[in-house]
Amino acid sequence: MGERLGEFERIDRYFKPLAARWPGALGLADDAALLDVPAHRRLVVTTDTMVESVHYLEGTPADAVARKLLRVNLSDLAAMGAEAKAYTLSLALPRTLDTDWLAAFAEGLAADQERYGIGLIGGDSVSTPGPPIVTATLFGEVDRGRALLRGGGREGDTVWVSGRPGEAVIGLEVARGELPGLAAEHRAALKARYDLPEPRLALGQGLVGIASAALDVSDGLVADLGHLCRASRLGAIVEAARLPRSPALAAALEAAPELEATAIAAGDDYELVFTAPPSAAEAVRQAGETAGVPVTAIGCLVAGEGVQVRGADGRPLDGVGGWTHF
Amino acid sequence: MGERLGEFERIDRYFKPLAARWPGALGLADDAALLDVPAHRRLVVTTDTMVESVHYLEGTPADAVARKLLRVNLSDLAAMGAEAKAYTLSLALPRTLDTDWLAAFAEGLAADQERYGIGLIGGDSVSTPGPPIVTATLFGEVDRGRALLRGGGREGDTVWVSGRPGEAVIGLEVARGELPGLAAEHRAALKARYDLPEPRLALGQGLVGIASAALDVSDGLVADLGHLCRASRLGAIVEAARLPRSPALAAALEAAPELEATAIAAGDDYELVFTAPPSAAEAVRQAGETAGVPVTAIGCLVAGEGVQVRGADGRPLDGVGGWTHF
Q: Between A and B, how many CB-CB pairs are < 8 A?
């Protein structure tokens, strides 16, 4: 921990309470934290940074910033099939942010600590003349040799997604004032998906031993499936008509059909995209049901490279990113 | 990992080579990294962030920024008695930084990876309109129940320091153009101590089982010893005349005696300050000799609270920080 006097008070008031559940945090008062990993488990480590106006809109409430920061990282743990345990924070904040902001930020952390059963174990806090930049490093556990990796896909495996990718990017459009004619309930549902992703931890853990490969959708379905394909040395075919749509997403794309390519190509959905042999389809559906998350088969892995999204006529769709290079 | 296309190239070119030695890094290509911790060990985690113009001077060469970032974190591991293993990075960099900067930054990382036997296992990289902000999270290991904590000091324990605290803050004065009359060799020696700390990893590991409490000097000797005292619920008396001085430090304080209080109170030395029972004095000296680091007894822990620095006349020195509240 950096340790100017102002920072001590900050730590005491807002962050020490968040470290109470984890003895290895040493009350955030020592040089480092201690973490135990059971002998049959491996530690899973991921880190993500968010910059105001780049990764979240200026004016986003501080508690939502905190929760989004934890959740984008938790989503990476979910994609590995890991159980979330603990985290460290690094905050670079302008001096103009007042204690209300910090209090709300800590409340957001507390809410999601509770929700996901994790504890703060350490961190650093500095001031910056630039925009707020927040970093979290998340720690999870997975049984040895059981982590879901990107490179395990086999030719003929089915490609699945959780939830309804595309909602978040359309939600961002809504947040920016686009789609003004859309029903208020749909606008709210889509915007909520952009503001606060739902990491699919239970689903990821349920897919251990079933899925052949997995990752989370942070760059858009096509781009991220492209990563899985590259790591597995295969290509993928996705049928656009099979992409799942909520009523809100369907209404938005009906109102603005020109956003369809955006919904497929872009996105901050933090859903899982994963592959499994066709024989595992029932097990996948069960895992989705147990986790309470819809799962949808959208295509398959094929020899070759790149991701091809096919329209209802079987021909490749245009404008869904730079990944359709068959 | 955040994953815009520009970032991919960055990662491929500069960071993947740094992850080659660590299989659990998964080539920096998966959602997270995997880390094994042997059953009899605990993981030690620490994170530190540096902001340009706050934690290092604008214009500092990128390789020196990288090395300082690793070393301030390694110093925290040293203070726990831990063995360094791996690290993650989070970089928020202005778009104006060119690839030369990145190449030099990666070279600095590579040099200290080699020096300290650590490997990069993950990270994130984002752009910022503000100044460069770099964060590292370091992972080390220590035998269960053997970590050096701050709160283990006992009344009557001897207070020790490694190296010569005060050199770094005087080195900063030199870097700012002060002390122009000092011999060039002394100026260079002091400035080097500010630019690039030397984490005392071997000493920290050597003190496991010998020292009763330890921490690293990042806020200044008096302030940091104050933390140890608070955690141990004791006070400390330090005799100013016993504080070790290199020829360069002695020459600087002779040229500018008004800096003496600064040298004692402030500092970015990343030396260890630690306590041990008087009966362990010979073992402490042996540990210092084995590690090749000078160690000096400078005082002792007493009932009460706060740190009192006494001059040659036995009276408290003025102006050595807010910690002399006997």
A: 200
